[in-house]
């Protein structure tokens, strides 16, 4: 049977992307033409890939104390090895008063030479407050094992708003298990551990709320997230109450590729059950 050309290209694209793990930290330099604040900056991209969608954070900086943090989204074409990223929001800026954040579009090409992985290409953009064109420039990045800045876990705007106004009582963290996974795609499912007794929990990963005041039942509370290589992740289950039968207990099912783990969690009004993760390709 002959496949339509578009469908065949889709299969080829998926096959090519399987060999290219773009998730992770990319670091290097960004140059800017005459008229920019500096002719050269350092640049770090924290890239998360979900299907054919890319999201993440960008830090361009002259030194680590003076930086602009942006969020971005984009797409990657596995056939052409081309990536287009579009910054959409200034999240944080600590730069000299005479400089202005530039909201950028990246046009990058992926290449691999042995263990070395690179993203190279061009960028252009507009100043965030004046909507004038920034002097464009070039980008050269390599995949890196560590970050120069905090790595965010993706959180939706609703949960971010809740967390900004929330004041929880600090509690001791009790590490129940440390899990090493071989896949960047991690699924966590939480069930009530025994009799359903109205336990509710708030769940953090790396201090970001991903579940807020959710009841544990025989149906899973599910969290999916992408882990970057060799970076630590910490899940904390904070007991909102102790249910009808103290303490607050849960069964956690972890799926990462073909790996599966079961972890039993128990949180109280003084301690929060904690599980640590690390992804080692």
Could you describe the 3D structure shown?
8% of the residues lie in helices and 57% in strands. The protein has 281 residues and is mostly beta strands. The protein folds into two domains: 140 residues, Lipocalin (Beta Barrel); 117 residues, Immunoglobulin-like (Sandwich), CATH 2.60.40. It has an eight-stranded antiparallel beta barrel with strand order 1-2-3-4-5-6-7-8.
What attributes does this structure have?
281 residues; Immunoglobulin-like; 2 domains; Lipocalin; five-stranded mixed β-sheet; 57% strand; eight-stranded antiparallel barrel; disordered N terminus; 17 strands; mainly beta
Q: Structural class of the helices, strands and pairings?
A: mainly beta
- Number of helical runs? 2
Report the CATH topology name of the largest domain: Lipocalin
Average pLDDT metric: 88
Strand ordering within the main sheet: 1-2-3-4-5-6-7-8
**Cα shape:** elongated
Our count of domains comes out at 2
Largest beta-sheet characterization? 8 strands, antiparallel, barrel
Terminal CA distance: 37 Å
Q: Give the helix level as a range of percent.
A: under 10%
Strand percentage lies at: over 45%
Given as residue ranges, the uncertain stretches (5+ residues, pLDDT < 50) are 1-18
